[in-house]
Design brief:
A hairpin with a 2-residue loop joins strand 6 and strand 7. Strands 3-2-1-4-5 form a five-stranded mixed sheet, with helices on both faces. The chain has a three-stranded antiparallel sheet with strand order 6-7-8. By secondary structure, it is α/β, with parallel strands linked by helices. The radius of gyration is 23 Å and the shape is flat. The chain has seven helices and eight strands; from the N terminus they run H-E-H-H-H-E-E-H-E-H-E-E-E-H-E.
Length: 215
């Protein structure tokens, strides 16, 4: 099927071995093909109000408790040592603590997904252990973004460095911020020119960093 052999595999085990071998190149080819079809076949949905809008978010998903999943995805419990010091002779508390430790060591995968808002189809993704950084995942996917993309994200994607990286790559952003982000306190100073507003946080201004801007 790939030009390397004339007939498909004759058994399930052989098929799985071939699939494992060709997973990476097949995934790259299929991903690019789906993205091309999204642009061509769903052209009326490609842009929303003149923007190529992609939404990004991350979430944790439980995995089967297999040895390989635990080795790759399980986080070490940060409570185990402290819990051992607080152990008592009461069996009920011991059982509760053991249940908490089992839950803390449950293998989970952190999945960061990019969605094309116009069509509702996935555009790209990154996966890693449960303590992965969704912001780092997004930075890894920046080369895969279409030109002039508008990224919409939740409060997990705030921060000067994150926003500056997106803007320097030629994209735009719309980010929801939580109550822990104080945009109007110690912001720095502002300059407006030709409809653009440039913002410098004080710390970055002192370091002579370039500002980020919004239109």
């Amino acid at each position: 099927m790939l030009g390397k052999q004339e007939q498909p595999a004759t058994s399930y085990q052989a098929f799985v071995k071939l699939l494992r071998k060709w997973t990476e190149p097949l995934r790259e080819l299929l991903t690019e093909a789906f993205r091309r079809r999204t642009r061509e076949s769903l052209a009326p949905l490609w842009k929303v109000a003149g923007w190529v809008v992609l939404a990004v978010d991350g979430s944790r998903c439980d995995l089967p408790r297999t040895r390989r999943n635990e080795q790759r995805y399980a986080c070490k419990s940060k409570l185990s040592r402290a819990a051992q010091k607080r152990r008592t002779r009461r069996s009920k508390r011991r059982r509760q603590q053991q249940a908490r430790e089992r839950k803390a060591n449950l293998p989970q995968v952190w999945l960061t997904m990019l969605w094309h808002v116009g069509s509702g189809l996935p555009w790209g993704w990154r996966a890693g252990p449960a303590d992965s950084s969704e912001r780092r995942h997004l930075q890894e996917m920046l080369p895969e973004l279409p030109d002039n993309t508008l990224i919409t994200a939740d409060a997990g994607f705030v921060g000067y460095e994150m926003w500056k990286t997106l803007l320097d790559a030629g994209h735009h952003l719309l980010v929801r911020v939580g109550s822990n982000v104080r945009l109007l306190k110690n912001l720095g100073y502002v300059r407006e020119r030709r409809g653009l507003v440039y913002l410098w946080p004080d710390q970055k201004a002192r370091a002579n960093c370039r500002p980020w801007y919004c239109g």
